[in-house]
Structures are given as structure tokens and as C-alpha cells.
Task: structure prediction
Amino acid sequence: MDSRKLTNYLKGFAIIFVMADHFAGQFLSRDYGWINGYANGFIAIFFLFSGYGLFYSFEKRFRRGPALKALGRYFLDRAVRIYPLYWLSLLIAPLVFPGNFNVLHETRGILIYLGLPFLGAPWLYWFMTALFQCYLLAPLFYLVLKKMPLWLSLGGAGLLVLISTPLSLIPAAQIDPLEYRYFLGAHLILFALGMTLPAAVLRYRHKVNNSLLAGSLLAFFASVYFTRTQSDVFSQSHVIFIPLMVWSAFALGLTWLSIGPALPLQDVFGTLGKHTYSLYLFHIPFYGLLADLGLLKNNQLGSIEVIIVLLPLFIFLCIKFERFFTSFTLSLAWRLRRLIPVS
Result:
């Protein structure tokens, strides 16, 4: 099966959990707190498969060698793909959630709009800061991993996890913009591991079976559960279990792509997975708008009915917005590419 369909399916599954979790956290906080806290864990899927997809992108871009032209076009393509929808979301969010985004009106607000990778953006936009870091380092990751044997790449990732674990437990060593789930560099490690997936699938696909797929899936869900809140199991357990999340996510990606299992509701989850970027950026502003209109109220089951009814409309609008902006930005990128020198 086409690997893009496989990755989009898991991403679509993950974005449903993210949107449901954020809804529960905002509007079902009193009696249903036990069902929230999972969103950030499932975002590990996005980091992993972002690295996986960019590996193939770089394979095409650098087919004739890592030329400056290819590198320039990569950053241009990323910028025109990411910024328009990111800026639109940043403009809308303060209107429906006033007070939560005061930083955008301060002097450094313009730096957040620029997406500087080491300046943490507020609230749900922390993910964008982490994503900018991954995209900035992606060419370096690719060039290094391309020259390394698979065992050394995986061993290096394991060493980074071992080093980051004690550092993440030390308050003085914590750097918010460089952390994912309170773990230093976890998103970057996941992203780099995603770039190793093509070689890993090629090497191990004949040794993978359904039992390994089920085991990796269960391990990943367990890691998401154990890291959903701080010290839920024991002191700093939310940090201690992050290595399990990293490696179970990698194992899930490896087994999923190797087996290519049957995909129920493939069109539904595949479509969601294809448009996770816009769904992520606009789902919380959408909730806020419905709340401002009086359609969503805290801790009322009627709010769930409203979301179920209006969610298809929201998804439809996100897809339309993303397609419109993609068409516009592709045209813009094509024009700007002519300005990039040949060498």
C-alpha cells in the first residue's frame, strides 16, 4: 500500500484524539477530566512522520547533490507552505480567546509571527515552535543520517535519549522551547527517527508481524497514558516514560509501514491526515468562536452534541481554506524560485 496513505491514516487518527482532548480540556473539565491530557502525546505521530516524509522530499531535492539551490528551494517551499495559515490562525485566536495571547501584542509578538525556533509561542502554538526547529535542522539531519549506517543512526538516537533523560529531570537544565512533554529534544529525536524509517522498513519489513504491530501500538498508547499528566504514576513519571513514547512511536511507524494493514474508513481518516495542519491550527479558535456565540458551555453534555453536528462543517472549511492557500502559495513559490541562484 502507498506509504502516504498509511501515514495519513495514522495522522488522521491522531488529530481526532488531539481535537477531542482539547475540547474536553476546555469544556468538560469538571466531571470528565479523566478523558483529557492525551493530545500532546499523540502529536509524537506528527513529528515522526514529518521526518519520514521530508526524507523522501530531500531524496528528490538533493538527487544531484546538496546544492545551495536545492537547500534554498526547500526553505522557500516550507515558508510558503507554513506561514500563511499560521499567520491567519494567529490573527484569529486572540479574537476568540482574548487575554490568552497578550504576548502577540508585545514587542516580541512580531518574533512569534516570524516563527523563530527558540522563542516559545503561546498555548497551542508551542507545536509550531517545535516544528520550526525540526524544519530548520532537517537538512542537517538528512545529510548526516544519509551517510550513517542504520545501526549507528539508531544507536545515536538511543544515546541522545539516555543523555536527555537525566537532563530533563534537572530543573536548572529545562529549556521550554527545546522540550516536548518536558523532555529535552524529544520532538527532534522523533523527527530524526522518522528520517531513519525508510532504511529501517527496508531492513526489517520481512521480520515484522501483526503481533509486533499490536505490541507497539499498545506500548505507544500506554506511554501516552503514563505521560498525560505530571507525576501521575510516581514522581516525574511523565519524564521517565518519554523514552517509551519515543521508541514505541518509532516501532509503531516501522511495523505500520512494513505491514500496511487494512484500513477501515480509509477515506475519512486519510482525508483528515492529509489536512492535519489546518485542523490543528484552527480547531481551538473554532471552539472559542462557538463558545462566544453561546453554543458551547462548560461541563454540559449538550456541548458534545453541538460539536458532533458542526464538526463536519469545520473540517470542510479547513480543507477548503488549506486547498486555497496551497494553490496560492504554490503559485507564489514557483515565482520566487526564479530568484534563487542556480549554484
